Amino acid sequence: MAAIVWLVAGILLAAAEMLTGNLVLIMLGVAALVTAGVSGATGAPILVDAVVFGVSSIALLALVRPLLLRRYMSPPPHQTGVDALPGKTARVLEAVDEHGGRVKIDGEVWSARPFDASESYAVGVTVYIMRIDGAHVVVWKGP
Fold first, then answer.
1. What average pLDDT does range 94-113 have in this prediction?
2. What pLDDT was estimated at residue 131?
3. Domains of the chain (ranges, CATH numbers)
């Protein structure tokens, strides 16, 4: 009977991990499943089950979780999407001034405004993308 309780607890903890995503509940769920296996195979008393659960929980949280966090929670090695745009160059399609303008970046047309509001850039000028501000790129001609 205790094995069924541990099995249900393990499944519920693993399912609850989907709501948090921090890999703690899944470690506890695996520890509960290990305890269910030991309890079902040996028919051990509840005290032994508690010790098995405690030891396996600590081992999983201290050894396995850090490895998984390093492997799956690290940022990608290179930037993608709009995060990759700062530092790239763009060609001015419509004059860019404090009121706006348009630039072309890798075949895509973006609304743009200058990094320094007192500057303006003529059509055909190559500018550098400083940052993304909403749906606009903030550009600078550079030195």
1. 94
2. 93
3. 2-72 (no CATH), 81-140 (2.40.50.140)
